[in-house]
Design a protein that fits this description.
There is one protein chain. Helix 5 runs antiparallel to helix 6. It is built from 11 helices and 18 strands. The two termini are about 30 Å apart. The chain has a domain at about 1-160 and about 280-355: Nucleotidyltransferase, domain 5. The protein is α+β, with helices and mostly antiparallel strands. A 7-stranded mixed β-sheet has the order 1-15-7-2-3-4-16, sandwiched between helices. It is globular.
Length: about 375
């Protein structure tokens, strides 16, 4: 939406061309604000859910949310705040009947809401019910009723980077891949045996993993996707907080490169719009996408602030039947309240260390 509004300006034809590529679907369901007479004016909150699909995987299994971000747009529409909720956050998930496999409700990790909502379903129905239960969970936790919702497929971002050729960003901690490496002959090979739950089992002898060293990098499509997937072997051992931050940085880097490289290229633009459209599924909340794009036209990459819940520090607790879960601190709940009442700027001013740095550079060779 931002790239449409900023780069395409007043061209209604190109604006329509951009928004028409985006898949639209009712995602929020009962968690949505009333849609009658909705307007783009005032503060807005968008629930952004990232899923990490894998090639040749059964679509009915692709229902666990990989990242959960509340995007807050202040009433003056001058900037955007990205607030990530740790996927292991302990929350109360309400009872929910998706028509296939009802869920009784109870305490669990927040990303389980998407899985329980979509359980027993496939395709668009799995996405809509998974998203709805996640949105209801967040509404009960924070009091925030999302104005719109978006599912982003990180696998789809590979197609965007393919159009751009590369994405340049600052790697803020050396990151070792558990998915991609090469054997002694230089042939691609998996460096680690992975358990069914996604955790690392053991290193595979004779395979050297990809390592993304701290510093400026320009990554090709495959490496960029591999980098944002990593959580296990980060130098600072910040696991999901690190991946959360890297995904935010990646989104901002892609946006920056789209606006500086892709939109000025007549040969890249058609493929870029198609790739973006395939990456996103959007619930516009009853406000046309063209209105969203026009209202957000002043928000460029430099006007996007990413904020760390729990200050980016672990606050874990072992919970019977759930395992190790993250507990949102009282200050994190203050942040979420600031999102609800449109006072995030004051929170950031009072808690500057909670702002995730963009990194000292965005370009490299």
């Amino acid at each position: 939406m931002t790239l449409s509004g900023v780069a395409l300006g007043g061209s209604q034809f190109l604006l329509h061309a951009a928004t028409s590529k985006v898949t639209q679907q009712n995602l929020l369901g009962a968690a949505a604000a009333p849609r009658q007479h909705r307007t783009i004016s005032g503060a807005k909150n968008i629930l952004l859910v990232g899923v990490d699909t894998r090639p040749h995987q059964d679509p009915s299994q692709l229902t666990r949310s990989d990242s959960i971000i509340l995007v807050h747009i202040p009433a003056d529409h001058s900037r955007a705040y990205l607030v990530s909720l740790p996927r292991d956050s302990l929350v109360d998930i309400p009872a929910y009947d998706n028509g296939a496999t009802p869920f009784r409700g109870g305490k669990n990790k927040i990303n389980a809401a998407f899985a329980f909502g979509s359980r027993g379903l496939s395709g668009p129905a799995a996405l809509s019910h998974g998203f709805e239960l996640l949105a209801l969970t967040i509404r009960d936790l924070t009091g925030i009723t999302p104005d719109a919702g978006t599912i982003i497929d990180f696998q789809g971002f590979k197609q965007i980077v393919q159009v751009l050729g590369k994405v340049c960003l600052y790697v803020d901690e050396t990151t070792t891949s558990i998915h991609v490496g090469h054997d002694k002959d230089g042939k691609p090979a998996a460096p680690y045996k992975i358990n069914p739950d996604g955790t690392v089992n053991h290193r595979i002898h004779g395979v050297t993993p990809n390592v993304y060293t701290k510093g400026n990098h320009c990554l090709d499509p495959a490496d960029s996707l591999d980098f944002v997937r990593q959580r296990d072997l980060l130098a600072n051992r910040d696991y999901d907080y690190g991946r959360q931050r890297h995904q935010q940085q990646f989104l901002r880097a892609v946006l920056h490169q789209v606006m500086t490289d892709g939109l000025n290229s007549p040969t890249k633009l058609p493929g870029l719009l198609t790739a973006v459209g395939r990456t996103m599924t959007v619930d516009d909340g009853g406000i046309p996408l063209e209105d969203w794009a026009f209202a957000m036209r002043g928000i460029g990459p430099d006007a996007i602030t990413t904020i760390k819940t729990n200050g980016g520090s672990f606050n874990s607790r072992s919970v019977p039947g759930v395992g190790s879960a993250e507990i949102l601190s009282p200050t994190s709940m203050e942040l979420l309240h600031a999102v609800k009442v449109d006072d995030v700027g004051s929170f950031v001013e009072a808690h500057p260390t909670w702002v995730a740095p963009a990194g000292p550079g965005t370009t490299a060779h």
